[in-house]
């Protein structure tokens, strides 16, 4: 039987603890219905670092079965997201995680346990060095803080869930559903996972792409480039060749492109494209402007080409984006 240990800490998002347990319980019921052998049922326990009950972010107490040593025989270890207001909050929190806990996680990795970080919980795995070189994700708006602190991680912020060997990561707070479905598929089968997806109403094509903007993808801060980026933002409807931008930064084109990539994580042309798409998203969500007018305002001429680009980068069409994010549409 696959045994799951869910780690609870003070200020934890309660659904990150209870949600996976409900998902695995639904999977067990569906496995009964479909006649899977008993050894394919999930079992679970909830633990904390010191074995004491924890206070959820909503203020109520969550009981636990014991401390993390109780989870030493778990096949799957889940670290839910915790409450935070900024990327700095998350970084400060993981910087103060007890070394003994991180050492224990590293020991479980050496024993080939399946390790799952949900939302900000992925920071804990990364802090232990357990995501270096692995494909991972985190909550879309924490992308910048994550990339800055953990450059060795292969981060994919568009993804709601990632799976790389024995490492699983979830993006936003409710991504535990997507991670759990992947575990159900791994330990049971696709038929059970699909049944659970229908019951939980999980969209298998969900993505964080519509919520990402250029600022979230920026890695570092650079005062000189900030001025260049502000110029770009003010002239989205203009041609902005690299030569012009390098001149504004008082650099050679080669040095400018290198420094820009080091700071933002992408070349100037790609960043400009992201900024144009970000502005188009804002106008779609906040105004009733016609798409043709928006396209021209952000520096494009061909509406059909823009639609294709928008769908590729944002994962939905401009019309779908407006229906989703414009009140009353």
Describe this structure as you would to a colleague.
The chain is of the alpha/beta class. The protein has 2 domains: 3-208, 3-Layer(aba) Sandwich (Rossmann fold); 214-325, Arc Repressor Mutant, subunit A, CATH 1.10.10. It is 49% helix and 12% strand. The chain is built from 15 helices and 11 strands. The protein has helices at residues 14-34, 87-95, 99-110, 121-127, 143-149, 176-187, 190-200, 214-217, 223-234, 242-248, 253-264, 268-286, 291-297, 303-314, 318-325; strands spanning 3-7, 43-48, 54-55, 61-62, 66-67, 76-79, 114-118, 135-136, 154-155, 161-164, 167-170. The strands form 3 sheets. A 7-stranded mixed beta sheet has the order 5-2-1-6-7-11-10, with helices on both faces. Helix 1 (14-34) runs parallel beside helix 6 (176-187) and helix 2 packs parallel to helix 5 (143-149). The termini are far apart. 40% of the residues are buried.
The gist of it:
It is built from 15 helices and 11 strands. With 329 residues, the chain is of the alpha/beta class.
The description of the largest β-sheet is: 7 strands, mixed
Count of distinct structural domains: 2
Category by helix and strand content: alpha/beta
Order of helices and strands: EHEEEEEHHEHEHEEEHHHHHHHHHH
In whole angstroms, how far apart are the ends? 48 Å
Overall shape: globular
Output the radius of gyration: 22 Å
Number of helices: 15
CATH class of the largest domain: Alpha Beta
What is the name of the CATH topology of the largest domain?
Rossmann fold
Amount of beta strand: 5-15%
**Proportion in helices:** 40-55%
Superfamily (CATH H level) name of the largest domain: Class I glutamine amidotransferase (GATase) domain
* Order of the strands making up the biggest sheet: 5-2-1-6-7-11-10
Low-pLDDT parts are none
Query: Quick check: average pLDDT?
Result: 94
Q: What's the architecture of the largest domain in CATH terms? A: 3-Layer(aba) Sandwich
Give the strand tally. 11
């Amino acid at each position: 039987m696959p045994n799951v240990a869910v780690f609870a800490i003070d200020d934890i998002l309660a659904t990150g603890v209870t949600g996976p347990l409900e998902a695995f319980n639904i999977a067990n019921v569906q496995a009964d219905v479909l006649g899977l052998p008993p050894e394919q049922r999930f079992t679970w326990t909830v633990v904390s670092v010191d074995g004491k009950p924890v206070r959820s972010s909503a203020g109520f107490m969550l009981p636990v079965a014991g401390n993390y040593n109780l989870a030493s025989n778990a096949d799957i270890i889940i670290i839910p997201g915790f409450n935070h207001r900024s990327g700095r909050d998350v970084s400060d929190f993981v910087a103060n995680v007890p070394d003994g806990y991180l050492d224990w996680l590293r020991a479980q990795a050496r024993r080939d346990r399946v390790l799952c970080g949900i939302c900000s919980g992925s920071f804990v795995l990364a802090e232990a060095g357990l995501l270096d070189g692995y494909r991972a994700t985190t909550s879309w708006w924490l992308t910048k803080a994550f990339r800055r602190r953990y450059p060795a991680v292969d981060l994919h912020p568009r993804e709601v869930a990632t799976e790389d060997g024995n490492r699983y990561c979830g993006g936003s707070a409710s991504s535990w559903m997507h991670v759990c479905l992947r575990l159900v598929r791994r330990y049971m089968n696709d038929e059970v996972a699909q049944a659970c997806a229908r019951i939980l109403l999980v969209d298998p094509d969900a993505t964080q792409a519509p919520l990402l903007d250029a600022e979230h993808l920026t890695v570092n801060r650079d005062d000189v480039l900030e001025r260049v980026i502000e110029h770009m933002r003010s002239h989205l409807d203009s041609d902005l060749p690299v030569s012009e931008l390098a001149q504004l930064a008082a650099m050679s084109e080669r040095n400018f492109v290198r420094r820009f990539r080091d700071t933002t994580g992408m070349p100037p042309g790609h960043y400009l494209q992201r900024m144009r798409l970000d502005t188009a998203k804002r106008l779609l969500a906040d105004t009733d402007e016609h798409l043709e007018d928006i396209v021209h305002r952000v520096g494009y001429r061909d509406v059909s080409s823009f639609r294709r680009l928008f769908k590729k980068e944002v994962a939905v069409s401009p019309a779908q984006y407006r229906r989703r994010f414009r009140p009353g549409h």
